[in-house]
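Re: beginner question about structure tokens

> Can someone show what the tokenized structure looks like for a real chain? I only ever see the sequence side.

Sure, here's an example I had lying around. Input first:
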Amino acid sequence: MARSAKLTAVDALATLAAALRSFEEEASVALDELDRQVRRAVEWIEHDQKEYWRRQVRKSSDDVASARANLARARAVRVADHQPACREERKALEKAKRRLAIAQEKGETVRRWSVAVLHEVNEYKGGINQFAGWLGSDLPRAVAALSRMSDSLDSYVSGMWAAVPAGPPPDDVTEGDRSMFSASG
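And the corresponding structure tokens:
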């Protein structure tokens, strides 16, 4: 069975090919920017946040040790065989312990998020790699096919115009076709 097409705009294929090339460039730039942002986010979680909370745990541990030492010194001082209440030192120790617990909790949260983020990044890269592969191979093949089709249509139309006799178009030609005849002749 023969297939036919009604051609109204031969340059549509060339326009589509140009639009696809433009899309390819913009998509490639967008993928590069996304990759940079993902790497920055992973670096922030994997390095910056892990290191920050590791330092906070260390500092808080030192603060707890210091507060314990201050409490022990305060308890060792006796005034007239009376042991002081050491309220301020106890408050400082409790405050230091709370800070340590928070820092440890945040460190553990960052560790869990690191695992989750790496998993999600791998999922993201799987999908993006498919799209990037399409951009790198399938899209250029499609553009090349459109260019070949456009060239074939241009050759066909050029051959068709060469076969058209000079003079006015036949009476059964529509007004739109008349403008094509007059534009080419």
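Each token stands for a local structural state, so reading them left to right follows the chain. The two ends are 34 Å apart (CA to CA).
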